[in-house]
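Operator note (shift B, R.M.): manual run for ABC transporter ATP-binding protein requested after the automated queue skipped it. Running by hand, logging everything below so the morning shift can see what happened. Input copied straight from the record, untouched. If output looks odd, do not overwrite the archive copy; leave it for review.
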Amino acid sequence: MTAVSEVSFTLREGEALALVGESGSGKSVTAMAVARMHAGMAGTRATGTLRWRGRQGEAVDLLALRGEALRRLRGREIAVVFQDPGSALDPLFTIGDQIAETLRHLLGLGRRAAAARAVELLQLVGIPDPIRRAGEYPHQLSGGMRQRAVIALALAGEPRLLIADEPTTALDVTIQAQIMELLRDLQESRGMAMIFVSHDLGLVAEVAHRLCVLYAGQVVEEGTAAEVLAAPRHPYTRALLDCIPSRDGPPPRGIPGLMPNPLAPPPHCRFAERCAMAVPACREAPVPLRDVAPGRRSRCLRWEALA
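Run finished. Output pasted below as returned.
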């Protein structure tokens, strides 16, 4: 089984890239592969190249990193905000202790300096009364505050890339908006690059500079967020936009059919069986991802019909 294939993109310093698509499209697998979170897991293997520009300008192949070099990468260069803050935090330690331990490990701070910096980070992510909250356990915080604490934990190593894996899934709409605003402000103020994983195109429009739309383990469209959302060049992107409720427009439509079996994906366009625009040529051979305009790519033979 190949979870994702032919996935390629470039992320620039200070840029926010969103990976969007249905559940099972390969968004989280792609994002976690960047952080090498699958390294050492039984039955997993990554091929290709992951090129990273280090703090001193040096080129690094992330797939070649092992042991201590890989551990230094995580947290210090690349940090992850996970989907479920409840499982990302240790219930046996206070919020402040967990952040302080990370600071001591990544930055080499002493206990007193690490504890003080932990409070500063909690304040930075908008947690009220951060001194008191630093002494509390995860179960004593609301869902929104736990997610803010996870973001503070991710920022502890002053990473250059923040990966946010559907960080608002378990939160209500009001808290979602607050977390999205926080992530956008932090990304812009600290100059971090960010990969934001979501199935919600309306949500990513608030933070992303560029979008990669994934379907069945492949990138089917890529471009600036404004261009992709305003004028999609792949039927799947168009279908995702049609799923967004509108106050004045027609009711949202679902996408008929099911995603292909990842154990045996079709040898042609993977969206063809669900696509209203499909023609016989779509089922004859694989469809390459091609440039359709400056900075725009699409994996569709009929992209011009959407223009």
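Quick read of the result: The first helix runs from residue 27 to 34. The chain has a mean pLDDT of 89.
Leaving this for review. - R.M.
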